[in-house]
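Example record

One chain of 185 residues, shown exactly as stored in the release files.
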Amino acid sequence: MPYWIWFLRIIDSKHFDKSIFVEYFPFMKPVTLKELKQELSVRPAKELLEICLRLSKFKKENKELLTYLLFESDDEKAYIEGVKKEIDEQFELINKKSPYIIKKQVRKILTTTKRQVKYSQKKETEVELLLHFCKKLKGFSPPIRYNPRLTNMYTAQLELIQKKITALHEDLQFDYGNELEDLLL
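Predicted structure tokens for this chain:
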């Protein structure tokens, strides 16, 4: 049995004093958002720049968020069009040899789309991008009606879109509601 399983068993046992473990192996606990905000307000601009650049080196998502905030947040329509093009390209690249691979790649496209929506944090953007995803999925060949998992994914996204539409302005609700009706199976 690997050593780390024994280590976990020792830690979970009733006779193990966890306070000693924490003393010898201190873990970094993240501070609250309020404390971060206070600390960042005290730091000079040059140091904030270094912190942002350092954050961008750790994760791809951090770099993508910074790119959105600095370059793309000013023109939301261009951002939406760029994401739609990316969705179109990803759908064209799907390997159609097996239903498993199709499902896996469609799920990856949906994850990417939701990540892009998360950067924007605008409900209109979310509805528009998810509607575009569902249009592409509905027009996909081979048809999704032969794959129950893709059909379930499709209907779940339609339900999510329907919930998001109710939170929008009345004019937008009408426009997006008509697009949603066209997508119903």
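Notes: The chain has a mean pLDDT of 86.
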